[in-house]
Amino acid sequence: MTSTYTSYNLIARDLPRSIERIASQPQIARESEYYLKRISEIKSVDEFMADTRIFNYAMKAHGLEDMNYAKAFMRKVLTEGVDNDDAFANQLADSKYKEFAETYNFARNGETATIFDKAQQGTVDKYHRLSLEEEAGEDNTGVRLALYFERTAPTIDSAYGILADTALYEVVRTALGIPAEVAASDIDKQADMLNSRLDIEDFKDPEKLNLFMQRFTALWELDNPSGGSASSSLLLGSSTGFGISPELMLSINNLKLGGR
């Protein structure tokens, strides 16, 4: 079996070609064609959520597939938008919800929310990239983690952004040789430790990010020979819950997830 280091580099060195291969797969091509044909016809949150194929496609594209069932939760995300500081999406630790609400911003743009590129081809591009990462993860969790980190890391703005995302933290922890038990310690102390050992701004530099990925994939292979057995679904879940206040968690629990 090809090593984590080699498998990641085979994909990353020519991402456009790798994504093109994924996009041409019959099932993915059919879903993408349906999405592009239908999305501009959708004028409201109700219509968006009523079309299961569209909704599920959008959720997967934004890394939220495991929340497909939580219709009431996602309705609240979409209905409140992102313009107010106290909007639901802005209160959630996982930034993917805010990105989702910005992509389908019915709260701000009403019936025209789906005419913008980010809601059309932009979402299709995300779907293809996520599908590529999922396929890589079927053979090697470390490759999926590396591809996810490479895509996400440039948007990280603080150590807390790493700590809030299980997958990002797993990559950083592995690359820096941080023992797993450290994750149980005080959050602020963990943030201080990360800040002392890396510069978040380096992730915005493609060359420095690439070096970090090479280090991660090499060290992952040492701990998980030929792929490893870590659960990618656990590491890449949509939300870790970090940073959500007890009051907000209570309001979430009171929602009828899966209904209106």
Describe this structure as you would to a colleague.
The protein has 17 helices and no strands. The C terminus is likely disordered. The chain is mostly helical.
The secondary-structure class comes to mainly alpha
The CA-CA distance between the termini, in Å, is 47 Å
Shape: globular
**Biggest β-sheet strands, sense, barrel:** none
Would you list the SSEs in sequence order as H and E? HHHHHHHHHHHHHHHHH
Provide the low-confidence segments as ranges.
238-260
Task: Considering the chains and any ligands shown, give keywords for the structure.
260 residues, mainly alpha, 17 helices, globular
SSE map:
Layout: H1 4-12, H2 15-23, H3 26-38, H4 45-50, H5 52-61, H6 71-80, H7 88-91, H8 95-103, H9 106-109, H10 121-139, H11 141-152, H12 159-163, H13 166-176, H14 187-197, H15 206-223, H16 232-235, H17 246-254
Helix pairs in contact: 1-11, 1-15, 2-10, 3-10, 5-10, 6-8, 10-11, 11-13, 11-15, 13-15
Short description, anyone?
The protein has 17 helices and no strands. It is an all-alpha fold and 260 residues long.
